[in-house]
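Objective 1.3, modelling of assemblies. Example input:
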Amino acid sequence: MTTPSTVETTTINIDGEDVDVPKGTNVIEAVKLVGKGKEVPHYCYHPKLSIAGNCRMCLVEMGMPMRDRATGEAILDEDGTQKIGWMPKPTIGCATNVSPGMHIKTDSPMVKESRNGITEFLLTNHPLDCPICDQAGECRLQEFSAEHGRGYSRFIEQKNVKPKRTRLGPRVMLDDERCILCSRCIRFSKEIAKDDVLGFVDRGTYSTLTCYPGKELENNYSLNTVDICPVGALTSTDFRFKMRVWFLKKINSICTESSVGANTVVWSREGKIYRVTPRRNDFVNDTWMTDSGRALFKSIESDGRLTHYTIDGVPKTIDETVQAAVGFLKSGKVALIGSAQSSVEEQFFHKLIAQHCNATVFLVGHTGEGDGILLSEDRTPNLRGALLNGLIAKIPEQNLNTLAEKIKTGEIDTLFVVNEDITQFGISDELLSKVKIIYQGVHANQTSRVAQIVYPSLSVFEKDGSFVNQNFRLQKFNTAVPGPQGVQADVLTLESTVANLVGEKPTKPLIRQMWEQISATVKHFNGLSWQQINDQGIELDPTPFLELPFVETKNLKFDPIAFQEKHAVGSQNKN
Amino acid sequence: MELKEHRLIFKHIDEPEYTNDIDCYLKHGGYEQLKKAFSMEPEAICAEVLESGVRGRGGAGFPAGMKWKFLDRKSGKPIYLICNADESEPGTFKDRQIIHQDPHQLIEGMMCTAYATQAKLAFIYIRGEFFEGHKILERAIEEARKKKFVGENILDSDYSCDIIIHRGAGAYICGEETGLIESLEGNRANPRIKPPYFPAALGLYQCPTIVNNVETLCDVKHIVEMGGKKFSEIGTPGNTGTRIWCVSGHVQKPGYYEFPCSAVTLGQLIYDVCGGLKPGRTLKAVIPGGSSSKILRADERFTGKLKDGTEFDWGIEDIPMDFDSLAAVGSMSGSGGVIVMDDTTDMVEALANINYFYAHESCGQCTPCREGVPWMRKVTQRMLNGEAREEDADLLKDIADQIAGRTICAFGEAASWPVQSFIVKFKDEFVEKARIQAALRKEGKPTAPETTLI
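Predicted structure (tokens):
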């Protein structure tokens, strides 16, 4: 669990009201913290990037308590309060850190006038093509122009002409006329993606964003530049011209690409996903995610989806299929090949199935090269969940050779396979013919084709559940779009399988009821409930697993050595 | 009446037999002050400079001694000295003369400063267009290096400091000190945000850095020579030393003239020193400190209070040429570029010319300057093209007001002050322009002049 750390605070005065804000925050963040609908508008400032101070939208009035230069004594007003020395010019909020006694005006005539001026300037050379611009609806320039602009134009001169369609990379398109030269994308590429490919050429009002000669914006984080672009200058070639953002429904989800578990928002309309964007979580992914993670939703529309509960390839009702599966499980010598792609809840039921039919549990690890940022070596989202659930006890191997041996010797004759094409991991066709298979998965593959019983699965976008990421942070995802017709959530199928195994009636529990069961029976989830898991996730205690050789190396929010040290110390303290 | 110049920095400029090589410089007592400086404690030189009250000659007029005092010496980081030789303010042409004709004076001044501030390395950032100046300086530094005035173990002491010359690539903004530093580091010359990037603490390569103008650094040599107190006796308190006034425009004898601060009035400078206006012309306006300073109208009365409390009531010709007086009348002495305009000047055209320059030179980093200044340029250009509107004057003033004080660097002010002052003082001409053009249009005649300055 996260413990609120004690932060030193500074008292400042915002629009006449004294407030406590953490020491060292800048004025933009301080005003945001105070809430009450107050906001300092800004374009170039981004909380996770260096300060550029170039848009000048966040100008505020600042004053400090006056002191006598010679004696250092406070100069008092007639009514006995300390006099405030207001700066003659407005200052930018992004580069102004709070200091004790600082006074800020966010709404004075001077501030309003400044914002008005900046807005007018930004619009002089802006094409004003909102009707055909993808950013419309989520455009800072559009929003602030409505809020702070004058509403009519005094600009009767020719606008600058710049390139409208520059391909910056395979996934990003640039409209130079819309660009307000805030340099967020440049700073992101340099500071976060560590791929310094963007820069400005030319000078003054003709400044133009471009890639360095012979380079492209093609790194796996390029689409983040589209997210942080405050205007419609950078657009995603995939999302461009597809859908108006105000039609889209936003659902919080978790990226399944790797054990990082980036927090995401899934944008859909009428059951179709249009894009996936990162959601801010300072413990997990800040405000970023990989391009490859964003593309994962495409697979749910593929022709290879499993859409029916089948027995020997013939579609059956769910009940019939479950009955048949239970028959297999009861009579056979069972092995369960679990998955680190499954949610915590599914793994819980897998574990129950394994318990009830004395199955040996296998799990295949999936690893790949990490990039040190937000793509970790472990390419499954929920290996920690499997450990916490007790489904497995150690880091899985990346093959099923032991299982192959056991099939050969006849120790195993029935397999419950979750989401894994076991033919890829050492189970030959000959061995496949020796076993009965129950397959549960999203897509058809070599294994599902020979399986006697198939449970179609819902993808992460079509169900509720939770994952535990590399930092042992329990995070939940929600149903963004409905799954294929007739396919029910995996947990329900599994629950009914378990119920049938033990001869009870399936109860079709809600996910929060499942969690009551999970927290009561799994010690590592003890005391948790579904409602408790908020959008930022919950940090679980990793100490029982610290000795395990996890494959992740250092990345943006995970440092294996620091993680070990932190929690090793923590566990000592507890003792 | 001819006024006698008091040449300090320009002592040898334009002397027929004076050459810019080191032998000639040594013959005239060159590098004696460097030897004197090396016999002093560095802190003592800093104290002398502070006492001299010498103010920066680059434009802002900030006391150089104070600037040195702000150096962050506790950080343990090396200190750098940069000579700002990116002289590009329209109307200013003093530094070029020093570099061309007396480069060793600059080098001596720089090495005195380097020693006083204990700089590790010194740079001269020279304007890209000064091809010849660059060559001359390179040669002069090599000569000085051979004689141990620059480089390793200067004058056989423990102190070493070399000078590196860096040529700009033709951008006005490189004269802004943080823009200069960015450029010197190899980046686009985008000025840095202050705070936190004050050069005295986080300058070149994030180390404490001193950036001084060519003339200011030359002054250091003379301060070492005569002592801070003696130097401060030239001119008036707060306006010490001499200034080189670069007079251009509609005068008989344009050129550079060196006088102690306050020694001449604007009227004396124009009529006595520069030979007055061309026959039959009358004075219309003067820009007293480079194109970015606010224009002064000839028939204005300037009244107010000086810093020391004395009240004044001046016509344009009575204004003493120094920092404080020019500031008191609402302009500035800036870099000393006095631009004189007589009654033949079309103020719209003059402003269009200035706007063209600033729009071209805006670095484009921050919004008000990037978008506002070209807008002003487009407006004045359109007015010249025969499509002036009566409301353009107010529009121009409004745009300028939206720029000044809201930009990262002082360029915003530099570009908006001319517009603000032109409109305030010559609004009638801007409105008249629109009326004349409207009348011409009615008659079916062309509204734009056949040729313009720009």
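Chain A has a mean pLDDT of 94.
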